[in-house]
TrEMBL record:
Keywords: Cell membrane, Membrane, Signal, Transport. Residues 60-302 form the ABC-type glycine betaine transport system substrate-binding domain. The keyword Ubl conjugation does not apply. GO terms for biological process: choline transport; glycine betaine transport. Residues 1-22 form the signal peptide. Its main location: membrane. It is found in: Cell membrane. GO terms for cellular component: ATP-binding cassette (ABC) transporter complex. Residues 27-52 have a biased composition (Acidic residues). This is ABC-type glycine betaine transport system substrate-binding domain-containing protein. It comes from the Bacteria. GO terms for molecular function: amine transmembrane transporter activity; carnitine transmembrane transporter activity. Gene3D superfamilies: Dipeptide-binding Protein, Domain 3, Glycine betaine-binding periplasmic protein, domain 2.
């Protein structure tokens, strides 16, 4: 009797062990066949690995011409890239040297290409050695600019101020597109025959403009927008019926060949970079008020997190 009891207990134990093993086998099969986790959401290898994640590291040099627009834009995007982890240098250069340095790979990129007119000749010369990333600002304009108190509205009326102005237009750096356009205007408009464009720098032009406005004296300068001077003074573009200054322009981003392969994250951020005039002007105005460009850029980045997030959304 006791022996039969032990036999029955042994059989029960064997059956129980068999059921346990079978249950474990089913769970393992389910885990192998069903890619869904305990919460019912699919987990994939792509979601659990960082192998394809973009890393933000490396050295980057951005170059720019020392115009107020380019000082602002270059420092802003440079700060954004620094925050991501890049070692960024921003270097001011002459117009032609800026284009050449990106085309020959000495610099990595610029956000300072005014097209189609202002930098048109430089673009024609170097376009085959550059990668175009498109506009970072649209609706830029160049032209002859005067204070509102002057009683002329068009270039074909400017000769009324020939004596007061000494038959001269106050320009910026020699070779700049807006200077060349102004020189073309003196040849296109018969009433401006014999006029000259006095070149200096964008800073010297702004100083001369400010002094003239303060004393309510006549002055005509080579101007462009966006620019802080339109917020600071009451100014107007002179009408250009002959089209010497061309149509509205874009400011575009250009990078060196190979940047996408070398620094794909930086390439994508530069490709995403785009802003509006109000945003642009806010940085220029702060710099004009005496704030260091790097500090003004940092302030803008801190105060515009949603826009910066759009620029830094890389895959």
């Amino acid at each position: 009797m006791l022996q039969e009891t032990w036999k029955r207990l042994g059989l029960i134990a064997v059956l129980a062990l068999t059921l346990v093993i079978a249950a474990c086998g089913t769970d393992e099969e389910d885990a192998t066949e069903d890619p869904e986790g305990a919460d019912g959401e699919e987990t994939t290898e792509e979601e659990t690995t960082d192998e394809d994640a973009v890393t933000h590291e490396g050295e980057l040099e951005l170059v720019y011409v020392e115009w107020d627009t380019e000082i602002a834009s270059t420092h802003v995007i440079g700060h954004v890239l620094e925050d991501l982890g890049y070692d960024v240098d921003v270097t001011p250069l002459d117009n032609a040297v800026m284009w050449q340095s990106v085309a020959n790979g000495e610099a990595d990129g610029m956000v300072a290409a005014w097209l189609p007119a202002t930098h048109g000749e430089l673009f024609e010369e170097y376009q085959d050695d550059l990668v175009e990333l498109g506009p970072n600002f649209e609706g830029a304009k160049i032209g002859a600019v005067v204070p509102e108190y002057m009683t002329v509205d068009s270039l074909d009326e400017l000769d009324q101020y020939a004596d007061e102005l000494g038959e001269s237009i106050t320009g910026i750096e020699p070779g700049a597109g807006v200077v060349q356009a102004a020189e073309d205007a003196t040849e296109t408009y018969e009433n401006l025959e014999g006029w000259s464009v006095d070149t200096s720098s964008s800073g010297a032009m702004a100083t001369a403009l400010g002094s003239a406005v303060e004393n309510e004296e006549p002055i005509v300068v080579t101007g462009w927008s966006p620019h802080w001077k339109f917020a600071e003074y009451d100014l107007k573009y002179l009408e250009d019926p002959e089209g010497a200054f061309g149509d509205a322009e874009t400011i575009e981003t250009m990078v060196r060949e190979g940047l996408e392969e070398d620094l794909p994250g930086a390439y994508q951020v530069l490709d995403n970079f785009f802003w509006e005039e109000e945003e642009f002007n806010s940085v220029m105005a702060e710099i004009q008020d005496g704030v260091d460009p790097a500090e003004a850029a940092a302030n803008f980045v801190e105060n515009n997190p949603e826009l910066v997030e759009e620029w830094t959304d890389v895959q």
